[in-house]
Amino acid sequence: MAVFYILLLFMIVAAIIAVETKNLLSAVICVGAIGFGGSLMFLFLRAPDIAITQIVVEVLGLIILIRATIARDVTLISGDREFFGTVVSVVILFVIFLAGMQVFATLPQFGAPIFARLPEAASQAYVRDGLSDTGATNVVTSVYLDYRAYDTLGEATVLFTAIVGATVILRGKSRKLLEDSDA
Amino acid sequence: MLYALCFLLFMIGLYCAVVKKNMVKIVLGIMIMEYAVNLFLIMLGYRAGGTAPILGVSDVNRQTASVAAHFLNTAVDPLPQALVLTSIVISLGSLALMISICIRTYAKYGTFDITEIRRLRG
Amino acid sequence: MKGMTVIVKTVASWVKVLIFLFGIYIILFGHLTPGGGFAGGVILASSYVLLMLAFGRTFVEDNLPLPVASRLDCLGAFLFALIAIAGLVVGGTFFLNFLYQEYLVGEPFKLVSGGTIPLSNVAIGLKVGASLFLVIFALSVFRCDSEKPGDEPSPDRAVEKGE
Q: Please, are residues C64 and C133 in contact by the beta-carbon 8 Å criterion?
């Protein structure tokens, strides 16, 4: 259990540095550190699928972010937002934090999930019947590709839309240059 | 207590997305929020002393083709893992979209500052 | 985007094959070991990103042209929907695992098991890999085209213009 606290504290310190530093490249690297700490947390939380996915997604995300920030306006933002707006935002966020802490008293204790107490929970059926219903020994794969395949269809649609949107936003200038060079 | 630290991480991301002026910093705040939410969902399903929900050769009775009882008692929750898996890949797609908007805005206005963008017109 | 030195190019040309093979392994064995279509697809895309960083954008554009990549992307999404509709046609339920129910049962812990699950993994891996390759390619193309003549050159841009 101590390893969870250490990793979470590391992620929180990296997040504070990412938020407060003035250099954009340092902020991007700190967000990369949060991602790697998250992948280690997933490994210790007994989720190896998620750990693999998080590491490779983190690497590609770092490449995308660094492409955007390097050789651009790296040093920056002199001055702050107006002081009153910042203070009001911080006060409201603190109130939300206190209200959220009240909710955590109702959540199950860490290490004793809900489905361990309820024999009719869906996850009990997935773990018990996963092999005989689908034939796959990886229960997580049988969940997201057989029992809940609609969610995967929705994810494929959302990813497709996001990529098409990004490509359309980035395409306009290069096509104009292509036409100028052809003409 | 661990839930509270995860929620603190989410709050830090929310603060960064709300208060900062630089567009890339806002994108970084949104990414921190996404990491915190994925972590929270996986932490909800953790069973102390549990094993990963992947069957090994010793967890299956070959004759009856059923799962052994010790696996049923120690497996962690597979349902949040399946949902978080798709969520992580969607966060990469949305990061690409947000960064493409930032790059486009920088090419047109020459700055990442959102207060400057409101003042300069065309 | 220009390439890098000779050492980086040599090592990248060896390592890229290993990364691609690893991505295919993660996709194909997704129903037996941790991994699955999403992680494998991202690994496939990252092998092409390695090529793009080491050899430059034009080399990768000749290797895997943009229309081919975008058709692979659409093919992956279409395959996934086709498997779902095949379940509807054969068994009467959308997304039915029809291969496991009657035709190709297989044994647990072998590669041929799980019915339509490995096929869905392949379709998802293809789709995710091609999509992410497309978007990182579009990001690099835009960056090189976005330099107007009156820009203040920073050191990296000056190196790229002079090369």
A: yes
List chain A domain ranges.
Answer: 1-79
How much is the average pLDDT of A116-145? 86
Q: Domain coordinates of chain B in residue numbers? A: 2-45+74-119
At which residue do the structure tokens 């094959």 appear? C17
Each domain of chain C, given as residue ranges in start order, spans 6-147
Spatial distance between the Cα atoms of A58 and A163, rounded to a whole number of angstroms? 17
CA distance B14 to chain C (A): 27
Q: In this complex, do C39 and A49 lie within 8 Å of one another by their Cβ atoms? A: yes
- Cβ of A134 within 8 Å of Cβ of C115? The answer is yes
Which has more pLDDT, A173 or C100? C100
Residue A52 confidence (pLDDT) above 90: yes
What whole-number distance in Å separates Cα of residue C139 and Cα of residue C157?
16
CA distances from C92 to A83, B119, C85 (A): 63, 59, 9
- What local confidence, expressed as pLDDT, does residue A124 receive? 87
Query: Which amino acid is present at A47?
Result: A
- Kind and range of the H or E element at C95? none
Q: Are A151 and A144 in contact (CB under 8 A)?
A: yes
- Phi-psi map region of A58: left, alpha, beta (phi>0 left; psi -120 to 50 alpha): alpha
Give the C-alpha separation, A139 to B55, whole Å: 7
Given an 8 Å threshold on Cβ–Cβ distance, is A174 in contact with C132?
no
User: pTM here?
Assistant: 0.88
ipTM: 0.89
Residue pair B84/B56 in contact by the 8 Å Cβ criterion: no
Residue A111 and residue C48: Cα distance in Å, rounded? 40
Q: Give the phi and the psi of residue B38 in degrees, each rounded to 5.
A: -60, -40
- The two tokens of residue C12 are 């990248």
The class that CATH gives domain B2-45+74-119 is mainly alpha
pLDDT at B122 over 60: no
Q: What is the rounded CA–CA span in Å between residue A166 and residue C141?
A: 13
